[in-house]
Amino acid sequence: MTLEVRLRHGFGGFTLDAGFEAPPGVTVLFGRSGSGKTTIVNAVAGLLRPEAGRIALGGRVLVDTERGVWRPPHRRRLGTIFQEGRLFPHLTVRQNLRYGAWFAPRGARREDMGRVVEMLGIGPLLDRRPGALSGGEKQRVAIGRALLSAPAAILADEPLAALDAARKAEILPYFERLRDEVAVPILYVSHAASEVARLATTVVALEAGRVVATGTAAEVLGDPGVKPLGPREAGAVLETRIAAHHADGLTELDAGGAALFLPRLAQEAGAAVRVRVAAHDVILAREAPRGLSALNVLPGTVREVRAGEGPGALVALDTDAGRLLARVTRRSVAALALAPGVAVHAIVKTVSVAPGDVGG
Q1: What is residue 356's DSSP assignment?
Q2: Helix (H) or strand (E) segment spanning residue 298
């Protein structure tokens, strides 16, 4: 089932004019605040009537302004996950979950409550009330409630924005399971590059109400021309597999045949792992370096050099591990004569990759 979105809507000095398709998996709407992400979600949810557009879910038309079609919010079969859990405080977790199931349409394929409870790890919470839950626990219950309503699609509007770093780290694996185990489109709003890298099946990058790029996380985040959040957030995504865990506390990843070492990961050998490498953590050298403490040295070829407005530049390079981005100074670009086709070596410190930038 695919969610198809084509919208045009004006707000005084801002005009949203965007179109994309969200297949099963997580489609992340990615961009700065004010780029139109939440406006799109509101239109899909039925909280906004667009001036012009068409929204369809698996062939079922929710909005078509030309034909005068407008399906009200309660008939759209959408599960919504907000920034806060928004659970009923007077009900237990079990009762909150059953409330979601109560809204499941008659005859719709329903998720098994036991499976949802196991997937989200909320079995020990069933008899508690929301006031006794942490922020991450509330979000897991909110996800379960949305799933048990038998939605045709799920809308998640910055669901981790209200959580601290520890709670985000706790809940991200559950969103990964949601992506991999639930066969409905998930429209996920975020302006955090690490979330996009870990979760996205498809990325829709937005700037000033327009779609500037669509594709996989590796394609969009690895494109130096796509800068939804500015150069400091630039980074590439590598698709890897765990080759081995070593006795010295390091995990060796197989990245397209190249070895990449990170502090020990929890996943078992053979597991697929996404790794986001921030551009400011990559150093470039024209010759193979010697006598360095860094373990990760990846030969590559410069694909593109894009100068910034200040003294910096973003260099895209192709390696056996995949596309990498390096943020360097324009002086370094000149000193190393960096240009498309030039052979370089990319150096990535083992400890520079944050745990939040590594996901299943």
Answers
A1: G
A2: strand 296-307
Assign 3-class secondary structure to 316-334.
Answer: EEEECCEEEEEEEEHHHHH
Sorted by where each begins, the domain ranges of the chain are 3-225, 235-359
Q: Which two tokens stand for residue 330?
A: 């324009």
Q: Which fold has domain 3-225?
A: Rossmann fold (3.40.50)
Residues with Cβ within 8 Å of 202's Cβ and at least 6 positions away in sequence, in order, are: 22, 23, 25, 26, 27, 28, 214, 215, 216
**Could you tell me which CATH class the domain 235-359 is placed in?**
mainly beta
DSSP at 343: E
State pLDDT tens for residues 315-335. 999 999 899 999 999 999 999
Of 152, 143, 76, the C-alpha closest to 110 is 152
Task: Give, as one character, the DSSP assignment of residue 286.
Answer: S
Provide φ and ψ at 98, rounded to 5°: -65, -25
Q: What is the pTM of this model?
A: 0.86
Q: DSSP code of 107?
A: T
User: Both ends of the chain: CA-CA distance in Å?
Assistant: 24
